[in-house]
Amino acid sequence: MKLSQAHPIATLDELRYHLQFAIGLELTTIPPYLCALYSIVEGENVEAAEAIQSVVMEEMLHMTQTANVLNAIGGAPTPYPEGGPDGLSPIPTYPTKVSFIDRIPEVHLLPFSREALDTFIAIEEPMEPRRPLPASGAVDAGAAPDGQYDSIGAFYEAIEDGLRRLCPEEVFVEAKRTRAGCQVPPHLYYGGAGELIEVGDLDSALTALRQIVRQGEGIPVEMMRQTAAAHLMPVPGSPRALEDVRVVDRDTTTFGWKMYSHYARFKEIREGRHYQPDQLVEEKPAGDLLPVDWHAVLPMTPDPRAEDYGGEYSAAMRACNVAYSGLVDRIYGAFNGDPASMEAAVSAMYDLRYRILALLQTPCPLHPALRLGPAFQYRSRATS
Amino acid sequence: MTAAEPDELFDVIIVGAGIAGATVAKIVAASGGKRILMLEAGRATGMSADKYQSHVEAFQATLAKVPNSPYPNNPNAPQADVLDLTQQLLVQPAPNQPPTSVVGAGGYMVQTGPLPFASDYVRALGGTTLHWLGTSLRMLPNDFVLQSKYGHGLDWPLSYDDLKPYYERAEWDVIGVAGSVEDQHYPGIDPATYFGDYHYPMERVPPSYLDKVMSARLDGRTITVQGHQYEVQLSNTPAGRNSRPRAGYQVVGAVGDPSQGQRCEGNNNCIPICPVQAKYNALKTLYELMVLYPGHRAPAPDRSSVAMVTQAAVSELTLDESGRVNGVTYKLYEDESSPTFVTRRARAKIYVLAANAIENAKLLLASNVANSSGMVGRNLMDHTLILTWGLMAEKVWGYRGPLSTSGIEPFRDGAFRNRHCAFRIEVGNEAWNFSANAPYSSVAIMVNGKERLFGRRLREKVAEVLPRQFRLALEMEQVPQASNYVTVDPAYRDPLGNYRPVIRYDLPDYVRAGMAAAAEASDRMYELLGVPKLRPDQDPDTFPFPGDYTSYQPTDVGYLTYAGKGYTFFGAGHVAGTHIMGSSRYTSVVDRRQRSWDHDNLYLVGSGNMPTIGTSNPTLTMTALAIWAGENILQDLGGDS
Question: C-alpha angle B499/B504/B508, rounded to 5°?
């Protein structure tokens, strides 16, 4: 099986294989965002840290939502999906290049910096014009040479198309039996804009995917042409609809409303300014200052790897890798019908955070001006 | 100095932007078309995520992590601090001499004794909910009829059944309470009638490991206290703390940073500050008001307008010839370090005082309003709190989880209330932090004490001792007494010229006897927990375990004696009772509708209205009462709008 825009998704297995990598795609962005977040000196760059943290939480929501879609069509989320090229896992090793999406740049693990933000913006940037998907059975001559998808949006569009064509009601009904108890319910998940959707039919599957696309990756370009005010997301924890949120005006932006798309949130940090409510999101933010101190940052080693060091340094980095791997395994456990695993994942997140913070306090033995950092090298429990 | 009469006439002016004021504003604003002004004497510091973080940093930097440590004093809206108590009581009355007026050298309250009023509150936007624990227990039905049932205290003009629907709204619509009905084990209470067919908006916050150890040892066991038997059972405490929502409830995160604080993270410092705002504070309600009803927009039939003015210290209410309130005078200051201010006036159809029980009383006395009963300032109450603490035989892992997740409730009501006050036992998850300022003090003793530990042996000792620390808080119901009061004295003013509170405070034998009974109950439970009194040959500075380390010293600020035994009490921060409601205008300040008997356009809200406080932390009850007050205000506004 191949992840390719060159032809439409042809079988249910291929669709499930795509969704395995959609889960991994959501996970891919989390480590670089965490590096930026945790390298900020505590108490500094508060607004930037809040924005990045809110994005991280949404990525985790999207990851879970995608798993719900896969479970709803009878697939079992796993870090090692079968049927593709050997060794191709949805869970990346950094630096990483997402092999099946052309325009996502190589993703590095970097401390909070302009360079890191430029990558984040590139990851989340909408792409236009989007070429129409090839008709069923046809081959798309305009596709990238190796058949990569143009953008995250195009990737999800192909999945939506596959769902419509390949998933009659029987698929969902059958999955309710084979994958009973594997939907992660909304009360187990929190944070981020929007609520986790339980998927039981085609409509809820499409709604779930659209929410993901809308909030960040592959956001439709039409939405970017809307004003910043119209771009505000409903705030979780309030029953207000988007309509009501539009009454928010400049006064309240200073109180921290930043439920824009990921793209807009990162652009605000990069430029050190908020949007004005009447600005288009594709414009350069020109509102109130969003103070950013690029020096109030712990100088993390770029793309650190545990094997580059010896002794206690390596041990601390490996321990951090184990914590990360345990977290990923627990999350996948929750996707496979073990709700207690999600609870364990929450404490695993804190464990990971403390280990990362400890690494960021440790001088790098090779470059004394730098600090160590998390490598996010995944080894599943089965193989480590 | 008189300011010109303002042209603008508000529907409602609310003095004080804490939970009571915010709740009234929310209820009134929800009806649409209302013009509301909120005046707050303190700063708006907490009202943005990064500024709230400055409170967190102040807390992290301080050594004595007392309730007001994250909230720096503002000279123009000064507040009490429990660390000031020694200064406030600088001149102790001599034995057998009447108390003499004393001046706090550095404090805010002027206390004349004989006991210190040992609680504080926050004067800032959000009020004392910034540092409350979050405990959201309802009062028990008998708490409302204490006088007729037990011959002590007073009766309310409202019953539990009257208040029940308002409790539900406070739990769902304002605070957001996590808890399970089936976990509530109250004496003589049938959950089917007490709660009815009801559930809290969020699932309970899970019990701590300490709770589980305690439950295993105590649940179902019987203890004898003063010759009477009581069955012990831990109850998971309902709390204004985010957990998993039940159907129909939306969790509210941090102000300005909604992805924070969606669940309690167990940071173990609910008091003095929840760093992620998983614990409710009134800033959340105020923020909602600011977003839904921006104050600079004129109200429309379907939308109210709520203006909030901070750094506006109200100094006086004025009356017209007919005895109705016709305005408030407030002092607006720009810089808290300078006593420079401008005087402003504002007018409304209805006025609401929501400035904390002591501040409300001060303002009423300063204005000479609402006091035909002579009861303004009287019946000052608090929960009287004593601690017991020890080391368990095994590790119970304190210093994690919310400060408290459970309580022991059998002493909240019973025939004993004829003889002594009711009390509640709170199980703490913060080890010896409250009782001994641990872990800092414990480590200091290990390093500087007899053992002089360092290096590996110190680390081992810390790992042996700290996880065994635990404490109970015994919280006594104080009853109303006219002789406990707050008053004002022209000799004592703050930099803006507003009055400082002058307080006279003592505890009657009814409360002290309850304290003795509570200490006895604690002793019995320590026996069941396998924690004996330290023997004379055991040196507490070497931390032998298991052992009961409770110790009260005559040099403690809150030291008192009863029946030959000494105890050290703390205030619980539950300032109440200074303008009580009642069924007679001659003995109470407000009627059952929470309206002043004397002025038909003046409402008082907050725990000052409570004639008795039972054994529940008062915030939930005052919120329920504020919803009720808000409805009555709407009714009074009636045809006007």
Answer: 155
Two tokens, residue B641 = 């709008």
Q: Does B288 sit within 8 Å of A238, measured CB to CB?
A: yes
Residue B609 · residue B622 · CB < 8 Å? yes
Contact B486, B412 (CB under 8 A): no
Distance from the A12 Cα atom to the nearest Cα atom in chain B, whole angstroms: 34
Cβ-based burial of B591 (10 A; exposed 0-12, middle 13-18, buried ≥19): middle
Question: What distance in Å separates residue A136's CA from the closest CA in chain B?
Answer: 42
- Per-residue model confidence as pLDDT tens for chain A (384 residues): 778 877 889 999 999 999 999 999 999 999 999 999 999 998 899 889 988 988 888 888 889 999 999 999 999 999 988 887 777 889 999 999 888 887 788 999 999 999 999 999 888 776 654 555 555 545 555 555 567 887 787 888 899 999 999 999 999 999 999 999 999 988 777 765 567 889 999 999 998 998 777 665 444 445 555 555 555 544 433 333 333 333 233 223 222 333 567 778 888 899 998 887 677 767 888 888 888 999 999 999 999 999 999 899 999 999 999 999 999 999 999 999 987 888 888 888 989 999 999 999 999 998 989 999 999 999 876 544
Provide ipTM, 2 decimals. 0.71
A202 close to A160: Cβ distance less than 8 angstroms: no
pTM score, whole prediction:
0.86
Helices A46-72 and A12-28: crossing angle in degrees, nearest 10, is 170
Q: Which residue of A has its CA nearest to B55?
A: A43
Amino acid found at A359:
L
- Parallel/antiparallel/unpaired status of strands B312-319 and B325-332: antiparallel
Tokens of A100: 């099946």
The token pair at B587 is: 């003995």
Beta-carbon contacts below 8 Å between A and B: 81
Q: Scanning every residue of chain A, which has its alpha carbon at the shortest distance from the alpha carbon of B48?
A: A255
By Cβ distance, the residue of A187, A237, A238 closest to B244 is: A187
A236/B258 Cβ within 8 A: yes
Q: Which of B567, B210, B534, B221 is nearest to B387 (CA)?
A: B567
Summarised one tens digit per residue, pLDDT across range A61-104 is: 889 999 999 999 999 999 988 887 777 889 999 999 888 887 78
List the alpha helices (DSSP H) in chain A: 12-28, 30-39, 46-72, 114-124, 152-166, 169-178, 202-215, 221-224, 242-245, 250-253, 262-271, 311-335, 339-360
**Chain A residues touching B296 at Cβ < 8 A:** 251
From residue B162, give the alpha-carbon distance in Å to each of A361, B26, B156, B194.
Answer: 58, 21, 11, 12
CB pair distance less than 8 Å for A50 and B255: no
The number of angstroms, rounded, from the C-alpha of A301 to the middle of its chain's C-alpha atoms is: 23
> Identity (one letter) of the amino acid at A95?
P
Which of B243, B291, B292 should be substituted to probe chain A, the one whose Cβ sees the most A Cβ atoms within 10 Å?
B291
Chain B neighbors of A237, CB-CB under 8 A: 250-253, 258, 262
3-state SS class at A366: coil
Of B251, B256, B259, the CB nearest to A53: B259
Structure tokens at A130: 């989007």
Is the Cβ pair B259, A57 closer than 8 Å?
A: yes
* Nearest Cβ partner for A255 among B48, B203, B292: B48
How many CA atoms are closer than 13 Å to the CA of B222, on its beta-carbon side? 5
Give A141's Cβ-side CA count (13 Å radius).
Answer: 0
Give SS3 for A193: coil
A237 and B256 within 8 Å at the Cβ level: the answer is: no
Question: CB B292 to CB A252 under 8 A?
Answer: no
List CB contacts (< 8 A) between A255 and chain B.
47-49, 255-256, 287, 290
Question: What values do phi and psi take at A238, rounded to 5?
Answer: -135, 145
Instruction: Find out whether the peptide bond into B439 is cis, omega within 30 degrees of 0.
Output: yes
